[in-house]
Write a structure and sequence with these properties.
The protein is mainly alpha-helical and 237 residues long. Helix content is 57%, strand content 8%. Helix 1 crosses helix 2 and helix 8 packs antiparallel against helix 9. The longest helix has 29 residues.
Length: 237
């Protein structure tokens, strides 16, 4: 188990280091209810040690290459919070750690342009009051225009809202979309809780919710019933 934990830590730290240089990393161990308190504490100590060892390796590599270190920032020295994914034990303390960390960052409470705030409010209204879950990239740019955001700042505001968790997208926003362009690349999710719930539905351990959903779909039409049966047969979902 120890070598598996090390492999996971090194893989994800390498990945984040390449994708988001200088990112702040807060480590958390889930499913502590499956191993017991003593084992959870032991594994958390491993995680802290391994994460710091990996950080030292990244620093040494960049120092050897003669480039400034733009690596990861381990919050609380790499301390690992432990939570239970079934009864929520540890979640409250984890949230408090997140809040303390956020408030300690240099850009906390930084002022935003009024046009950016206006777009943020407009997207929240569309998600909560109109029931919209997604918009296309082109729609997002049009909304930015309507809020008075100049063209040069369109990608800036989208990236900012993505970082803030207001929206989520999985491809750099481009005004004039090249072809071919996938549906995922052309989609911006403005109802983030809905997206999170969808992902949780895919990765969760309890499959009963999936069966309930399939039954609801199956009741509406024969086509829906056949589609569910096909997915269960092929993907096990």
């Amino acid at each position: 188990i120890k070598s598996q934990i090390r492999d996971n830590i090194e893989y994800w730290m390498d990945y984040i280091h390449v994708k988001v240089p200088g990112a702040f990393v807060l480590l958390v161990g889930t499913h502590k209810d499956t191993v017991g308190l003593v084992e959870a504490a032991r594994q958390c100590s491993w995680v802290r040690q391994m994460a710091n060892e990996k950080l030292d390796k990244l620093f040494a590599l960049q120092e050897e290459a003669g480039v400034p270190f733009t690596g990861l920032m381990l919050i609380n020295g790499g301390s690992c919070s432990s939570v239970s994914s079934t009864d929520g034990d540890g979640i409250k303390a984890f949230r408090q750690t997140l809040l303390r960390t956020a408030k300690s960052l240099p850009w906390f409470e930084e002022a935003l342009p009024g046009s950016f705030v206006k777009l943020k409010s407009k997207l929240a209204h569309m998600a909560l009051m109109e029931g919209r879950k997604i918009v296309t990239v082109e729609e997002m740019f049009d909304l930015a225009d309507d809020c008075g955001i100049i063209f040069e700042n369109h990608e800036v505001v989208i990236s900012l809202l993505h970082d803030l968790g207001v929206i989520k997208h999985f491809s750099p926003p481009v005004r004039h979309i090249p072809k071919p362009w996938t549906h995922l690349q052309d989609t911006i999710y403005i109802n983030v809780p809905w997206l999170i719930d969808a992902i949780k539905g895919i990765v969760r351990h309890d499959r009963n919710s999936m069966f309930r959903y399939f039954n609801q779909v199956a009741e509406k039409s024969l086509k829906g019933r056949l589609r569910c049966a096909q997915r269960l047969a092929i993907f096990g979902l």
